[in-house]
Every structure is written in C-alpha cells, then in structure tokens.
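ESCALATION

Customer reports they have been waiting on this structure for their group meeting. Please prioritize. Original submission:
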Amino acid sequence: MKSKGLVSVIMNCHNGEAFLKEAIESVVKQKYKKWELIFWDNNSKDASEQIFKSFKDKRLKYYFRKKKVSLYESRNSAIKKAKGEFIAFLDQDDIWFPNKLSLQIKKFSDPNVGLVYGKFFKINENSFFRKKQLITAGKLPEGYITKDLLKDYKVGLLTIMLRKKFLNKAKIFKTQYNFLADLDFVLRFSLKYKFAGVQEVVGIYRQHENQMQEKYFKEKSVQFSAWYKELISKNMFGGKKNLGVFEEWERFYSNLILVKTERGFSVLLKIMKYPNNINKIKLFLLLLLPETITKKIISLT
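Update from on-call: job pushed to the front of the queue and completed.
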C-alpha cells in the first residue's frame, strides 16, 4: 500500500473485549478508504484477539506483545509499524463517526499543518448527570495555538491526526508520563507546528470505571505533579503565569490523594482553604459522600 495519503490508525489494546468490536467497526466504516489499522495487542488475556481477527480486511494488521508494557510505550512501538503519511489514534473503547478521516484529511492541503483535531462527545452511561457531554461547543482554535491550549485544553487523542514526517521518530510520547503523555506531546508539538480544527463532532470518548485514568488516580496525581514541575523548571511555555489551567489541575489531583487516602478533619480544613471553584465542590463531595454515590455524579477526568 503506497504511503501517500495513507492514514495509519493506531489502536492499542489490553483486555478490551467489552467495546472493541464497535471501535474497529467505526474504522472499517470510514468514508475515507485509504487507511491501515495497526492493532497493538498489549498481552491481552481475553477475547480481544479473536474479535480483531473476526474482521476480514487486509488493511487490519495485528501485533502481539508477549510482555505487557505501559500504554505509551505500546503506542510508541505501534507508531514504528505505521506506513502512512498520517497517523491517527483510536483506543479500544472509543468510536469514530464515519466522516472523521475524510473531514480531517482535507485540512492537510496546507503543508504547514502538522496536527488536525476535532470536537467529540464524552459518554458516561453510569453517571446520573451529563451522560452525554459535548466537549467544546464553541469554535476550535486554529493556527499556532499554544496560548489557546494553555488557557483551555480540549484536545481529545481520539480526534487528532498527525503529519508523520513532523514527528520525532525515536520517541513520540514520554513514557514516564503514562497518564498524560498525549497532553504533554500535543503542547510540545504546538510550539513548532500549525494546528487545524474540524468544527464538527468526529467521535465518542467512552468514560468508564475500568479505564486506567479512573483506577490509578494516585499514580496520575504523582505524575501530574512531576510533569507540572518540569514545565515550570524548563520555562518552555513562558513560566508559571501561562500555566493557570494546569496549576489548577495539579492542585486538584494533589488534594484528591488526601481525600481518597487520609480523609479526616485536617483534610476538610485544607479543602476549605481551596480556591472557590467547581473542583472545590468536587473535593467536598468526595470527602463527605460514600464512594458508591460519588462514582455516579463526579468525573475525575
């Protein structure tokens, strides 16, 4: 398959049988037909392999990792197998709409565009409220948009497509930040390359309690704190004054560890000193209500 115009779709999987068929079908049903699916099975023990191989399409390529490694190490490995001119990502539990690739490929007619992204829905069927949420109702910023991303980061990995020749072939994602490596990559990439936005909804991000982000909040909090400190120390985005959104995220996750592990009156006092915003309300509810209830009403991602 010739690489010009080819989109290499990266799908990493570890025990993804619950939603995998829908995810693969959403790639197969794309209106844009020049793609390959690099399916990286990260030592699954369930029926993921059987589900994948039930699709009879030569564009679907299967790779199996005998020893499980981190998600972003897997993504870096899968990208090395890609033959396309462009790279796109879809996780095992997410869905693309049929026009996703066809809408985005047009944006690369501008040779300076390195990344195209789009709008998406976040769905959480277990939530009492906001089961289906549109991420970014307003117009997506385009161009050299680092400042926009620092003020309001709304880029979903499932929506992005990259021009492969602009990538650092050795290491795309930093594996030490396994819970936020795509965030780190997109911000760094934005310092060099032009972004384009598809002003339509191109997919669905499915949120559920088995996701890595939901299960390992403590590890994510520690990583986020280390990442935030690195950004400040390297001054790559103009220092702390430009990192207000991420300063708040770091503050929230640091307090989340206390709420989840210590509780007690001292934690309550600390939350009372927290800036007045929605995260303060979340922390109060997480501290005071049973987990069976907070799981249904509070999103941590």
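Sent to customer with the following note: The chain has twelve helices and nine strands.
Escalation resolved.
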